[in-house]
Amino acid sequence: MGTLIQDLRYALRTMRKSPVFTLVAVLALALGIGANTAIFSVVNAVLLRPLPFANPERLFVVRARNERDGSVSAEQSYPNFQDLRAQCRSCEGFAAYSHATTFLMNPGEEPERERGVETSADLFAMLGAKPELGRAFTPEEDQPGAHRVVVLSHAFWQRSFGGARDVVGRDIPLGGAPTTVVGVMPPDFKFPVESAQADFWMPLAPLLPPNDLTHRDYVSLDLVAETKPGVTPRQAQAEIETISRRLQQQYPETNTALLFFTKPLHEELVGDLRTALFVLLGAVGCVLLIACANVANLLLARAAGRAKEMSIRAALGASRWRIVRQLLTESLLLAVLGGALGLLVATWGVALFAAASPADIPRVSEINLDPRVALFTAAVTLLTGVVFGLAPALQAAKADVNEALKEGGRGSGEGTGRSRLRGALVVSEIALSLVLLVGAGLLGQSFKRLLDVRPGFDPANLVTMDVVLRSSRYPQDAQRTQFFQDFLERAKQLPGVRAVGLVNPLPLNGNFETWDFEIDGRAPFAPGVQHDADRRIVSPEYFQTMGIALLRGRAFDARDRAGSPQVAVVNETFARRFFPGEDAVGKRIVLNGGAISGAREIVGLVGDVRHAGLDEPATPEFYFPFTQVPSPRLTVVARAADAGSAAAVVPALRGVVRQTDKESPIYNVRTMDSLLAASVAKRRFNMILLGGFASVALVLAALGIYGVISYTVTQRTHEIGVRVALGAQPSDVVRMILRQGMAFALAGVGCGLVGDGDYLA
User: Fold this and answer.
1) Strand 514-519 vs strand 532-538: parallel, antiparallel, or unpaired?
2) Taking phi first (over 0 means left), then psi (-120 to 50 degrees means alpha), and beta for anything else, what does residue 175 get?
3) Which residues share a beta bridge with 63?
4) How many Å separate Cα 453 from the centre of its chain?
5) DSSP, res 456
6) 170/480 Cα distance (integer angstroms)
7) Helix or strand holding residue 70 (H, E)
């Protein structure tokens, strides 16, 4: 121990004598260690940390695969959920849920939008979650026609009710209808984990439309289950598949070729994030290696200057191991200082990551520097100290004493072995930085191509907002239609508004509603063959407002009203898939089930719109006029005359709604440009991160070249003087130095291109 303390004291004295060297080395290591710690904290929170439930390893989701076309459906029907729950003997619990949006309608106040979850009663027990106040749902409350009850989130309870403990048992105006509060969840409870924090949870069955309760082709529910203790995932999957086969035989019209399968909840949650996060972890690992190579080069240069010192120590009896231990102590001390500063860098990095990350990255709020991250940082710090310190220490310890003293006396420079090692380190830095740069460049090129994809509409100067009509004030379809017609007439007259329309759902907002149909005059589709399309409800002005091309036929107009012949407009993908080689205009489709059942004539064909995202292909879609399919919830889409007037359009549109009904909720006020940016936010975020790490790596590699060349020039001062004395021109000296630098650079580029071969192939 005494020897170790002596080594530490000597290392501190040595570092104080070289403050510039110490500062550069510590900063390089802090950058590498801090970046690794920050990204590992993300990997830890998203991938490694178990879900915050009672038995997370036994939780799984249920998905359905169409065995004919291979398509996978995340949402299932309520009858299929009931059968799976009743027949699954391997399951301890089985729950269904769907996302919901409603409003807290306090009299005299602006409606407050709340996001929640409609779920079956056994969800909380299955997750092992207990309310902080009150209780969870009872099975009787999860029955059709039951009284409305709600469990509040802790944040919603604090925000809207001031944390009043007597809120349990109180009726609140949630969604415009009296709803009894039965419980409040603790602050750390969050489900679903992949979404924004839910404000409330309500029983599922009382809120489902009657058709959803009985029709197996009405899919809107996510299913999550828990296996019994001792049941393996393979056993649960086998039983779910057996139940699927049974349901296929019992309900051939809806379940033919529908195969249910299981997937661990955690795996479903992280999805494709696993690959992206490990790529980023590999990138910051390369940055750390480059930082280590730089510090190793600094130590090698320093060791060359201390060759005489080490030779004297050896001549005085110091063993090779004693010299190695002293130098390793110095490198480990540098690593510890770099690791300590790296934790501060990681703290900033984690905060920046959480603030800048896209909204759809799960568990971002759980990212922190917990003990596992601290242990990782300690391990990386110690490993780093050994990695960059071992080679210089061994080089210094194995030097011949007599030769070292001679070299030190002549001032001729470092030995050949040490020079080669430094050159190899620089080459490796360039190679690693080139690998990162090529990866970032390819990612940037891919992102540019994505931005070049046409979404099918013109997003410039488009502003949107959602308007919801309360069923208590507008119980009849005619009342809803009249409200929106009056709104359109007034909105068209607003200054700065070039065009205005209505739609539900809006492109790129993540919402879809799919309807089955048959083609009039043709045999029904074979069981298992896709015969559905995404439904959109629009006003006649919608296509013109959005800039969606009308390719054939006509758009909706005043003829298409309630009581008139039912019509539809379809997109190119719909026509190409269901009417190949034919003109879809004039054909008739028959919708299956629901309030809009019956035959409709296709009167128009419009261009495809990428509703799911720029990286997702267009799907079959049909559009219906809002006058024939009234909806209490529509999105206003208005095109401003120019970018300058767009900001003034929103309050004007709000005013038009408030003139008619001041209690109608208005929310999601945004521009189409922001929606388009949000749809590619994850790709942009990954590109910026990888590009940033690649840039840092390039700077470190450039510093490494500079350090080697600078030190080489210093060591060759005598030689250069002799060359000049013998007639060499300054340009000759410059060329000689540049040749050495270019040799390092070209060797590094060559190695880097070999490493990038898979990317460039």
Assistant:
1) antiparallel
2) left
3) 261
4) 21
5) S
6) 31
7) none
Neighbours of 398 (CB within 10 A): 11
Amino acid identity at 220: S
Task: Give the residue ranges of DSSP H helices in 71-223.
Answer: 78-87, 123-127, 154-161, 210-214
Burial of 70 (0-12, 13-18, 19+ CB in 10 A): exposed
> What does the H/E/C string look like for 291-318?
HHHHHHHHHHHHHHHCHHHHHHHHHCCC
Domain limits, the chain? 2-47+275-449+683-760, 69-256, 462-673
What mean pLDDT, rounded, does the chain reach? 83
Q: Report which DSSP code applies to 537.
A: E
Amino acid at 524: P
Residues 627-658 pLDDT 10s = 998 888 899 999 988 877 777 888 888 888 88
Is residue 682 within 8 Å of residue 130, measured between CB atoms?
A: no
Residue 194 burial (CB < 10 Å; 0-12/13-18/19+)? middle
Q: Where are the beta strands (DSSP E) in 147-245?
A: 149-152, 171-174, 177-184, 200-203, 219-227
- Assess contact for 599 and 520: CB atoms under 8 A: yes
Task: Judge contact between 75 and 212, C-beta under 8 A.
Answer: no
- Show the tokens assigned to 566: 């039912």
Asked if 244 and 282 count as a contact pair (C-beta separation under 8 A), the reply is no
Q: Which amino acid is at 751?
A: C
Closest CA to 482 of 632, 342, 586: 632
Task: Name residue 412's amino acid.
Answer: S
Give the residue with greater pLDDT, 462 vs 442.
462
Cα 726 to Cα 364: distance, rounded to the nearest angstrom: 67
Burial class (CB in 10 A: 0-12, 13-18, 19+), 757: exposed
Tokens coding 661: 């009904």
SS3 content of the chain, % helix, strand, coil (to 5): 50, 20, 30
pLDDT at position 95, please? 94
Strand partners, 606: 550, 571
| Cβ(635)–Cβ(622) below 8 Å | no
- Cβ-based neighbour number of residue 389 at 10 Å: 24
Distance CA 760, CA 434 (A): 12
Please tell me the distance from the alpha carbon of residue 119 to that of residue 420, in angstroms, as a whole number. Answer: 67
Identity of the amino acid at 589: I
CA distance to 327, 334, 342, 411, per residue, from 388 (Å): 11, 10, 16, 26
Which DSSP state fits 506? P
Question: What is the full DSSP assignment across 422-437?
Answer: HHHHHHHHHHHHHHHH
Alpha helices in 66-163 (DSSP H): 78-87, 123-127, 154-161
Residue 610 pLDDT > 80? yes
> Of the candidates 82, 81, 62, which has an alpha carbon nearest to the alpha carbon of residue 72?
62
One-letter amino acid for residue 516 of the chain:
D
90-114 pLDDT, tens digit per residue, is 999 999 999 888 877 666 667 778 8
Query: Does position 322 have pLDDT exceeding 90, yes or no?
Result: no
pLDDT above 70 for 436: yes
